[in-house]
């Protein structure tokens, strides 16, 4: 039989687990809203303020503000993803909501980018052919589709911090951090980032402001990929090294594929 103290302890810990789950759901919802807004923001569609909405600051100041905004995103994303930061951060918050806090912070910085972004309305290219413009818009949506699909392949709800608190309420504890190479991950090592690159670059109307976004975020993705792979090699060792040899980073490799794991 359980003592009264045990029952109180049990219900307190269940309340904490439920609170953690609620927090992670709130973070996930914030992410969904910013993600959907970002699609409209970059595609200049169905949002009150898009990447090319003006008027803004004079272009030299607009450039400074925009580069600063992307730098804030890159710093938040990279610092919070490092193991050393996570170790210290988990002394402050319960480890089970660590990923959800990362998702919430990323969504907040993304929202800041959409809100404060300064347009630089000088045309870099403008596709006149309706057919070609339509093809580019289709490819733009394909890029976002790739992001979503890859996230589900790698474990969507773990990536966005919902699975971790959910697992504390379920028995037995599932194993996290498994090395996975499902479908798209057999073609390229970073299909999700490839999807972002397509969505950032492919547009029938490229303005200087949009180009600044595409260039700076591409630079960040390339640096972030190196950092992520360093962690993945540390985590998975030779399995990941073999994977690197056989599968291209962002474009399919022409080399023979073998030993790509599951
Ligand atoms: C935002 S996801 C991006 C995944 C991948 N870079 C991509 O572009 O598809 C980042 C998380 O996925 C994890 N990850 C990346 N590749 C993985 C793999 N092959 N197996 C398991 N986890 C992976 C990383 O450790 C990191 O926590």
UniProtKB/TrEMBL annotation:
Q: Where does it reside?
A: Membrane
Catalysed reaction(s) here are: methanethiol + S-adenosyl-L-methionine = dimethyl sulfide + S-adenosyl-L-homocysteine + H(+)
Bilayer-crossing regions: 18-39, 59-79, 100-118, 138-162
Membrane topology note: Multi-pass membrane protein
- List UniProt keywords, sorted A-Z: Membrane, Methyltransferase, S-adenosyl-L-methionine, Transferase, Transmembrane, Transmembrane helix
**InterPro entries attached here?**
MddA, Nurim-like
Domain of life of the organism in this record? Answer: Bacteria
* E.C. number: 2.1.1.334
Role of this protein: Catalyzes the methylation of methanethiol (MeSH) to yield dimethylsulphide (DMS).
| Similarity remark | Belongs to the nurim family.
Instruction: Identify the PANTHER family for this entry.
Output: NURIM (PTHR31040:SF1)
Please give the name of this protein.
methanethiol S-methyltransferase
**Which species is this UniProt entry from?**
Pseudomonas fragi
């Amino acid at each position: 039989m359980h003592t009264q103290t045990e029952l109180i302890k049990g219900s307190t810990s269940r309340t904490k687990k439920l609170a953690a789950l609620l927090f992670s759901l709130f973070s996930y919802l914030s992410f969904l809203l910013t993600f959907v807004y970002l699609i409209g923001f970059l595609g200049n569609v169905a949002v009150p303020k898009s990447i090319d909405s003006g008027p803004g600051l004079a272009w030299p100041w607009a450039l400074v503000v925009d580069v600063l905004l992307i730098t804030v995103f890159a710093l938040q994303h990279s610092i919070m993803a490092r193991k050393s930061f996570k170790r210290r951060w988990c002394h402050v918050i319960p480890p089970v909501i660590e990923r959800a806090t990362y998702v919430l912070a990323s969504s907040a910085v993304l929202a800041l980018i959409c809100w404060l972004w300064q347009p630089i309305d000088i045309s870099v290219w403008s596709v006149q052919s309706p057919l070609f413009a339509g093809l580019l818009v289709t490819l733009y949506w394909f890029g976002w589709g790739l992001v979503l699909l890859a996230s589900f392949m790698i474990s969507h709800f773990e990536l966005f911090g919902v699975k971790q608190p959910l697992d504390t309420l379920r028995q037995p504890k599932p194993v996290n951090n498994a090395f996975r190479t499902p479908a798209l991950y057999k073609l390229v090592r970073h299909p999700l980032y490839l999807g972002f690159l397509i969505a950032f670059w492919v547009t029938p109307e490229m303005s200087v402001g949009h180009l600044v976004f595409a260039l700076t975020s591409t630079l960040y993705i390339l640096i972030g990929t190196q950092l992520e792979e360093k962690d993945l090699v540390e985590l998975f060792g030779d399995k990941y090294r073999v994977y690197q040899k056989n599968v291209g980073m962002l474009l399919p490799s022409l080399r023979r594929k073998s030993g790509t794991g599951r």
